[in-house]
């Protein structure tokens, strides 16, 4: 009897230990799936292991074995996902709230606002070694988000945008400042010639504002790729393209241009009226000469000018007709 109770207790204890082990094992097992737009970086998390990168989960993979007690995947944009970073004075279009247009001086000292968008791709699964390097360096840093909090780049869109804003913006500002500073205002915004004294600007096609802006874009593309690779110590971004949507002028400068354009419009209107008066005077002189040469034609035109409803008395002596105005005449 005593022996049976002892065995039952032993078996119960063993069963409890096995059950506890199974619960821990099941809870520590991690099977993951990855959506098509992100690549996952899994790090170990078990007490007996380090925190090194354990596995890369490609976009669209799953379910795949993630390991025992491993951390949830750190999600980064897949290599084929086109990302954008916009600088604009319009809060409805930019990725950040408020005014964030890049303001830089031109060669002749006019402060212009440059609004544009950087189109880029992250390295993602395209280069797993570069991805691992990124996760071990930049992925371990926190960046200030729009709400004032600190986020890692892999913590959703807010974390990624905070990282991009911190990395892209200083480099972009510096590059744009250097490139725009090589041009006069009129070489980028044609209306600047109305109010600002500049050196003579050539009118060749390659010096037109549209061509100049295209040259600025190409130069910024090359400089931004090189600066990012040097600053971050790695090629983590590719297909970088900066496109300028518009170049704006300060409010007072734009107001002066609008005033000048209105003045030019008024001058043009006055010239048109003067030209019209000259033509009308010339026509009147020709008409008077015609009437002098043909009194009969003048008489006909005189009769045409008589108001309707009037009584006309003609005399045979060649005198001008008498007109008796009737009611309403």
Task: Note the topology.
Blueprint: H1 2-28, E1 29-32, E2 38-43, E3 53-57, E4 64-68, E5 74-77, E6 83-87, E7 102-105, E8 111-122, H2 128-136, E9 143-144, E10 150-151, H3 156-180, H4 185-188, H5 209-232, E11 237-248, H6 251-293, H7 295-304, E12 311-313, E13 322-324
Antiparallel strand pairs: 1-4, 2-3, 2-5, 6-8, 7-8, 8-11, 9-10, 12-13
Could you give a short description of this structure?
The chain is α+β, with helices and mostly antiparallel strands. It has helices spanning 2-28, 128-136, 156-180, 185-188, 209-232, 251-293, 295-304, and strands at 29-32, 38-43, 53-57, 64-68, 74-77, 83-87, 102-105, 111-122, 143-144, 150-151, 237-248, 311-313, 322-324.
Give an account of the 3D structure.
The chain has three domains: 2-77, no CATH class; 83-126 and 164-249, Band 7 domain (Tetrahydropterin Synthase, Chain A, 2-Layer Sandwich); 270-317, no CATH class. α6 packs across α7 (295-304). The strands form five sheets. Strands 6, 7, 8 and 11 form a four-stranded antiparallel sheet that branches. The chain has a three-stranded antiparallel sheet with strand order 3-2-5, covered by helices on one side. Strands 1-4 form a two-stranded antiparallel sheet. It is an alpha+beta fold. A hairpin with an 8-residue loop joins β12 and β13. It has helices spanning 2-28, 128-136, 156-180, 185-188, 209-232, 251-293, 295-304; strands at 29-32, 38-43, 53-57, 64-68, 74-77, 83-87, 102-105, 111-122, 143-144, 150-151, 237-248, 311-313, 322-324. The N and C termini lie far apart (142 Å). The chain is built from seven helices and 13 strands.
